[in-house]
């Protein structure tokens, strides 16, 4: 894990961490409301590898009303950010029926096509939701 973080930019504290997380989402074409984070301790991003991490004081659960989706964000979230995609995601789960399968990837279609966002896991592949249903809290 140390090699993945080499040369990373790190933001400490809630305010700076939220700014950095929003900046990363925007830069990579992901909806700003995708990560409704709680009390952020640290956000880091290593541009060379695409590895990002978010540390919060505690787990956060959020209900996206527009799509009727419950999502759980662990205290530690990691993944590899690419344009319109977070791969090898760890620390995020989306409720399906009575189960909470982990979300392994989040991908956004090209705006020129459907513009839909997809949550992918080993258990379930979502049909996709319009990206505007993940508004920013700003």
From TrEMBL:
TM spans (from-to): none
Entry-linked Gene3D superfamilies: At5g01610-like (2.30.240.10)
Protein name: DUF538 family protein
Any Pfam family matching the protein: DUF538
UniProt organism field: Oryza glaberrima (African rice)
PANTHER family reported in the protein's UniProt record: OS01G0652700 PROTEIN, T31J12.3 PROTEIN-RELATED
């Amino acid at each position: 894990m140390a090699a993945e973080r080499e040369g990373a930019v790190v933001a400490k504290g809630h305010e700076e961490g939220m700014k950095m997380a929003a900046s990363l989402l925007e830069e990579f074409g992901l909806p700003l409301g995708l990560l409704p984070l709680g009390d952020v301790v640290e956000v880091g991003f290593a541009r060379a590898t695409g590895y990002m991490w978010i540390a919060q004081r505690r787990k956060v659960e959020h209900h996206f009303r527009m799509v009727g989706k419950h999502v759980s964000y662990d205290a530690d979230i990691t993944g590899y950010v690419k344009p319109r995609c977070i791969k090898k995601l760890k620390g995020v789960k989306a409720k399906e029926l009575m189960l909470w399968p982990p979300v392994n990837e989040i991908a956004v279609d090209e705006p020129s096509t459907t513009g839909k966002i997809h949550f992918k896991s080993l258990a379930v592949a979502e049909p996709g939701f319009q990206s505007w249903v993940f508004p920013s809290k700003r």
